[in-house]
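From the pipeline queue, job 12 of 40. The input is one protein chain; the requested action is below.

Action: predict structure.
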Amino acid sequence: MEGWDATSQEDARASSDGAPVIDNGTQKPARTRSNALDVTALSPRRAKRIVANREAAHRSRMRKLKHMSEMEASVSRIERDNEELQRKIGMLQQQYIGLQREQKSLFMHAEYLRQEEHRLQRLNGRLIEELNRALGQG
């Protein structure tokens, strides 16, 4: 800051309104857009450096805004994708529950068929024995 040397910057403290107070008790007004540094009153080299710095700061702010906008768009896309995946998870869980029920039913039916097979084999064995006895072969 123009007019400040290293010691006065280190010794500066803030007043109640936020403006820096220099040790001799005088206040340096806070810099605002209305009282921003007038580059026309400076040396051309310093004025060029200040303008270049302002332009670089502006570009930096624009990059930051663009990055924030891209990040917000990315968050929105990810949230939509997440909602879609959550919906698919719900559907797949319902399908899984249905398949578990069907599997249980099929296992029970398979067990019934095994028991029925054994029952019919025993019945067939008894019928063969009875047929053999009736035919006199037994």
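Job complete. Helices lie at 6-11, 44-134.
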